[in-house]
Design a protein that fits this description.
The chain contains 8 helices and 11 strands. By secondary structure, the protein is an alpha+beta fold. It folds into 2 domains: 161 residues, no CATH class; 59 residues, no CATH class. The strands form 2 sheets. A 9-stranded antiparallel sheet has the order 1-7-11-10-9-8-3-4-5, covered by helices on one side. α1 packs antiparallel against α5 and α2 packs antiparallel against α4.
Length: 271
Amino acid sequence: MSRALALLAGLVVAVGGLSACGDDDLSSVDVLAIDVPAERVASVTYTAGTKSATFEGRNGVFVPGAGGTAESATLINASDTTFPILAYRIMDNVDPATPDFGLASAASTGAAARASECGAGCSIALTDTDGVTRKLSVGARSFNSAGFYATVEGDPRVFLLISATVAQIISLANGRPFAFPPTKQEAELAATQARLSEEAAGRGAPEANYDPYLRQVLAAEQDRKAAKAGRPAEALLKAATSTQDQPGQSNGQATAAPTANEQQPDDSERE
């Protein structure tokens, strides 16, 4: 179990430490792209390509405006992570016109890496209760597809948004839920979490994590029982040739180890 927990911790660190060009210039303290809580949003417009939807804010509750629908209003009201708008990385002292960021119209390299669902671009235009308007524009995917570059009008920094934030822009602009397929890292993390949950609930196979020597001892005992019952004794051979935890295995599957119910002889079989 300790090995599994260590793997999970490593994946969490990997997801949390996703980086992009210019990491030497990061600010890791401030993660706010638009620092306006829901209660201070007077109106907000989400745009994805040719689709736009506006929502009017009323003390943190949003009602559909131009292009908005009751379903999309439900989506925005059901989320408690919409405002303020957060970034997982902020890069200072970089040029937003860098082609790979896809934030400038002339950045053809980055434009090709934009989400197809965004068409010519995805953006958020937010006006707060003081009448100040802020506009966030989404650019290309980061080099490892973990998120998207973005910029806020009047702010020289480049922000990295998680994919879920861009998916929400697309969802609200189009009036129906949208989600990007999980990245490889997200899929690995989800699989590890599911396996740990199964083991915690007693539905996993803890014997797969037994020490190899212990597996062979238990297999030998299983063979003894099989021989006494006149059945083929093959458990020890399987345990000895198992690829469990060995690098280079072709299919990622280990030879079955003796299960807990098969490991201990009953009293009538003890010598």
